[in-house]
Design a protein that fits this description.
This protein has about 280 residues and is mainly alpha-helical. The chain has a single domain, classed as Up-down Bundle (Rhopdopsin 7-helix transmembrane proteins), CATH 1.20.1070. It is built from eight helices and three strands. The chain has a three-stranded mixed beta sheet with strand order 1-2-3, covered by helices on one side. The N and C termini lie far apart (about 55 Å).
């Protein structure tokens, strides 16, 4: 860790590291609980285990990013190491984020099956491809340092969350009573997330892109950017991490807890879920 780290940044790093450890322990406890759980319905057994594995990819990916903090486009990091490079961090983030949205798709598919909603099931099928496309935008931004890629990425995340909400709405009327609270929770969280994305997150990247355009910034060519991915700018200044402190703290805590909640919730109900052909 850099010796010039400011106290507020150091305390933030300690908090983030603590969150990472806590999330790993919580995921492990859920795994112990669910792998011991016995269900007469094979649909539930597969659902729990798939959600737990996908959540594990997300939890461990986010925890590693809690321990080794970095800011991709600016190449900032708290430590001088190859593991702190943008290339490593973005690779971890890509797998973690695809696993997270896969959890959404698995959850919406379950709701669609028990609600007999073909439209909701079709929405579930497009969630992962949309985020795969968003990851392309993210890599473009990271490699070229052009915030246009981030605008594209974050806009797709907002769209994907919106489609998830539409799917949940389609399932709500026909879903069993035990599923009503998870659906309402999903709609509430989705509304808050989309609102944040369209009013705060996407506009912040638009402003950053406009500032770069106004200053005549030269973006990296793709070949240059690939070579630059291993460059690490070690900094512990609070000014450099100011915005990251906000979104990283929320992302690596609340988003991870949502991932873990999808392992626990909804609970099993006494019915046989329809098959995929229904």
């Amino acid at each position: 860790m850099t010796e010039a780290i400011e106290p507020i940044v150091y305390r933030w790093w300690l908090i983030m590291s603590g969150i990472g450890v806590f999330n790993i322990l919580l995921w492990s406890a859920l795994g112990y609980r669910h792998w011991r759980r016995v269900s007469d319905d094979p649909h539930w057994a597969r659902y729990w285990r798939l959600q737990w594995v996908l959540s594990g990819v997300y939890v461990l990916g986010c925890a590693s990013r809690c321990f080794v903090l970095r800011s991709d486009i600016k190449r900032f990091a708290l430590i001088d190491s190859w593991f702190a490079s943008v290339g490593v961090g973005r690779t971890i983030a890509t797998f973690a984020e695809l696993a997270f949205v896969a959890q959404w798709a698995v959850l919406l598919t379950l709701f669609a099956r028990v609600s007999h909603s073909r439209k909701a099931r079709s929405y579930a099928l497009v969630l992962v491809p949309l985020i795969l496309l968003a990851e392309v935008g993210s890599w473009y931004a990271v490699v070229t340092t052009n915030y246009a890629g981030s605008i594209f990425e974050e806009s797709l995340w907002a769209l994907t969350a919106g489609l998830m909400m539409l799917g949940l709405l389609m399932c709500r009327r026909q879903a069993p009573p035990a599923f009503q609270r998870p659906i309402i929770a999903g709609l509430t969280l989705g509304f808050g997330y989309v609102t944040y994305m369209v009013t705060v997150d996407v506009p912040s990247y638009v402003r950053a892109w406009m500032a770069d355009e106004a200053s005549g910034k030269r973006y990296l060519a793709f070949s240059e950017g690939l070579q630059d991915l291993q460059r690490v700018v070690v900094t512990g200044r609070a000014e450099d991490w100011q915005y990251a402190m906000v979104w990283m703290t929320l992302y690596f805590s609340v988003a991870v807890w949502i991932s873990l909640a999808m392992v626990y919730w909804p609970k099993e109900v006494r019915f046989a879920a329809p098959s995929a052909s229904d």
